[in-house]
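check this:
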Amino acid sequence: MDMRFGILFLIGLVASECPDGWLYYQHSCYMFGHSSHTFMDAVKYCEHFNATMLNVNTREEQNFLKSFMSNLKEHYYWIGLTDEVIDGVWRLYPSEQPSRVFDWYAGAGEPQGGTVENCVHAQPGYGYQWADVSCSSTASVVCEKDSSSNGVQVIGRDIQAKERE
């Protein structure tokens, strides 16, 4: 009986690291939007929640997100990745750091848009692998933020984000 209580306590502790409606994975919180936006409108949408557009940093994170997306209603989802500054040099948005992880859909020769397609989304028809598209296209958004940045007090942590604002 004590073991079950401990497991429930730990599950509650992990779940409380993200705001309601957000998904927790490896110290990040993710929110999957339901409406379509252009790339820049998606950026603003995430900023409204003190978050950024999804930046995929590991292969494990990408596999987790693809698995989760495949269980949702089919949406195209923006990835915070662009080559607007230098064609073919893909950088995370907004940090401008070079991306170390890619999951291009090779079946269509992605990325293949040249200077016309400078933004990236995950496509349901490609198994949520990536395609480069025009930044004025519309897609749903995945917002991401560090799980410690949501102002929630978790036992054993001193998170006082609300006081710093």
Remarks:
- Residues 32-164 form a domain with the Mannose-Binding Protein A; Chain A fold (CATH 3.10.100.10).
